[in-house]
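quick q for whoever's on today - can somebody do inverse folding on this one?? i tried earlier but teh output was garbage lol. tokens:
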């Protein structure tokens, strides 16, 4: 006689095992999903091998909380981390100012925190560099009296904060790069970085004690690329350690602008991407067809239903579009390599 209880086991056994297997599989998939995507808003993404730090990537490591001063007729803004290991002077480009490197806050109400500048400062602070920024007096840096003024400010600031024993390094972009190349003949830097600038090496006397120089440039700027190649040979022939980092163009994506810009919502970022594609500002792969400065994207936004919660966002977006086209713009994308360059030449 067939046993009813055995019949139940014969049918329920495999069924129960299948249900258990299904539950375990769903659980594992869920856990993997959580591990992959948990807190992704703070993790850097990658585009064409570039480390694309998100605007809040350093949130758990450091907060921007600078001190603001006014000396010798110009703004001086800085922040010193606990146990600093070096001092970094940052020189902005034309139309820039010290406030661009710092977020607006109670300690710096006039700061603007441009996406690339603030990430450079954050990266340096996270690596225990004291960061000092100074505004040029005119639209761009000048190379006469202003060299002396900035030299005096840096010397005063280092002494005031008892940082004389630390290595001193500098990064200057565009006009700031030209300025730093000349300032390096007046101050003892352990090393310097010239960003989107070939320097003033046809106007200065290069000696063996000139600091190691890293050029961070964009090869699409053919004139500057040629001059940098020429000056790298000149520096090498004078016993100066020299390296270069080439910054290439990269494609936009629906969420890239939101990832890079504080205060820009993901939905607005996606709408902007769709608008740029519809207007023909980007190609089928997401690459900018023209430099951001020559793209009438602001006019297109005004005609659309896209509304920015803060008008300042337009300046932030402009910087990222310029960077994506990669001809001439401040960039934080190689901050890790730049900091390692500084660290490798400390003395």
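ok took a stab at it. sequence:
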């Amino acid at each position: 006689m067939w046993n009813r209880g055995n019949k139940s086991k014969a049918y329920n056994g495999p069924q129960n095992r299948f249900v258990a297997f299904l539950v375990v599989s769903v659980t594992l998939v869920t856990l993997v999903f959580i591990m992959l995507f948990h807190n992704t808003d703070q993790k850097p993404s990658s585009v064409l091998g570039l480390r694309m730090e998100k605007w809040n990537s350093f949130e758990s490591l450091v907060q921007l909380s600078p001190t603001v001063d006014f000396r010798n007729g110009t703004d001086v803004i800085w922040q010193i981390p606990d146990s600093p290991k070096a001092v970094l002077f940052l020189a902005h480009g034309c139309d820039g100012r010290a406030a661009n490197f710092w977020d607006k806050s109670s300690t710096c109400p006039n700061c603007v925190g441009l996406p690339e500048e603030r990430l450079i400062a954050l990266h340096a602070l996270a690596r225990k560099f004291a960061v000092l920024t100074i505004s040029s007096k005119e639209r761009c840096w000048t190379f006469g009296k202003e060299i002396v003024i900035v030299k005096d400010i840096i010397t005063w600031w280092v002494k005031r904060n008892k940082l004389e024993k630390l290595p001193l390094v500098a990064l200057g972009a565009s006009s700031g790069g030209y300025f730093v190349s000349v300032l390096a003949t007046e101050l003892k830097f352990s090393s310097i970085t010239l960003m989107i600038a070939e320097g003033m090496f046809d106007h200065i006397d290069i000696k063996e004690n000139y600091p190691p120089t890293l050029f961070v440039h964009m090869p699409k700027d053919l004139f500057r690329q040629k001059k940098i190649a020429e000056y790298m040979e000149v520096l090498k022939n004078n016993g100066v350690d020299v390296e270069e980092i080439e910054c290439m163009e990269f494609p936009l994506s629906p969420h890239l602008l939101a990832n890079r810009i504080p205060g820009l919502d993901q939905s607005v970022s996606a709408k902007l991407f769709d608008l740029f594609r519809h207007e023909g500002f980007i190609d089928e792969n997401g690459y900018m067809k023209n430099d951001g400065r020559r793209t009438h994207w602001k006019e297109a936004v005004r005609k659309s239903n896209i509304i920015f919660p803060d008008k300042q966002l337009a300046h932030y977006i402009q910087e990222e579009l310029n960077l994506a086209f990669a001809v001439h713009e401040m960039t934080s994308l190689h901050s890790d390599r730049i900091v390692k360059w500084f660290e490798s030449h400390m003395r």
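fwiw The chain has three domains: 1-35, 67-248+333-344, 256-325. also The chain has ten helices and ten strands. so keep that in mind when u check it
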